[in-house]
Design goal:
single chain; 263 residues; alpha+beta; Jelly Rolls; Arc Repressor Mutant, subunit A; 2 domains; 5-stranded antiparallel β-sheet; 4-stranded antiparallel β-sheet; 10 helices
């Protein structure tokens, strides 16, 4: 099992299969298996139990699980669920980014995502020319909603909020972990741990995202050349800026500017 960093802009899921599944009372044995792709499931009810990597959950209507490759699952009857298996290009690969890292393996909802799951199931089985696109769009909505529920409304601790404020105010200048430690009131290492815990990213990754987002604005709305934009956004050099910008967005600053002005 390998782990790969996946830029959010490159999150294009490949649905492997999607179905409605039922485990009946007549099933005698606990079903144990290990997932080799991503799996997202929506439970339609029952009185069974699910065990994810040794942690047990009672199944209720509206419960959702998101399992990474390598997750061990055991379940006992009875229950019914929608299940979608997918990856982002390679099977048996754990992809990592701010979105995927901040969705829990199992959580309860009131059932608001049922329609999106139904859309994926029906679209995956359809032969219509646009069916796969519709299925992918519904799956992305599921992933986004799960993330939004557990991350965007999450409150950072005071130490992390102070670090974020410092980064946002000083992104044009050199921002060091030592300086952030002064603002957080903790050691450099503990500041890093707190920041990663609350945001899902390192301070450097947060800083880079702010700089790239500011660069996008300048590329779209200003006449500054690439070198001037790199300097204005805090990058050490034009070449370094171009490398990071393409790594994060998938395109060069010049191509991004051209596309932005066509919109």
């Amino acid at each position: 099992m390998k782990s790969v960093e996946l830029p959010i802009e490159a999150m294009l899921p490949r649905i492997l299969w999607a179905r409605e599944f039922e485990l009946c009372e007549t099933t005698e044995k606990i079903r144990g298996r290990t997932s080799y792709s991503y799996e997202v499931g929506f439970y339609l009810g029952g009185n069974g139990k699910l065990c994810v990597n040794g942690k047990e959950y009672e199944i209720n209507y509206g419960d959702i699980r998101l399992n990474r490759p390598g997750t061990h699952l055991d379940s006992t009857p009875s229950y019914k669920c929608y299940t979608i298996n997918f990856d982002f290009g390679e099977n048996s690969t754990i992809y990592s980014n701010q979105i995927l890292d901040n969705i829990p393996e199992y959580f309860s909802t009131t059932g608001e995502l049922a329609k999106q799951f139904e859309t994926v199931i029906k679209s995956f089985a359809s032969n219509e020319v646009h069916s796969k696109l519709r299925a992918n769009a519904a799956l992305m909505q599921i992933i986004y909603t799960a993330f939004d529920t557990f991350y965007s409304k999450k409150k950072y601790c005071d130490a992390v909020r102070r670090c974020i404020a410092h980064i946002e105010e000083n992104y044009r200048d050199k921002v060091t972990l030592e300086k952030l430690g002064e603002f957080s009131g903790y050691s450099d290492l503990h500041t890093m741990r707190l920041f990663k815990r609350d945001t899902g990213r390192t301070p450097h990754e947060w800083l880079t995202e702010i700089r790239v987002n500011r660069a996008k604005e300048l590329l779209s709305d200003s006449s500054k050349n690439i070198e001037e934009i790199a300097s204005a956004c805090g990058f050490n050099s034009e070449s370094h800026f171009k490398i990071l910008f393409k790594k994060i967005t998938g395109m060069t600053p010049g191509v991004y500017r051209k596309n932005a002005r066509l919109m």
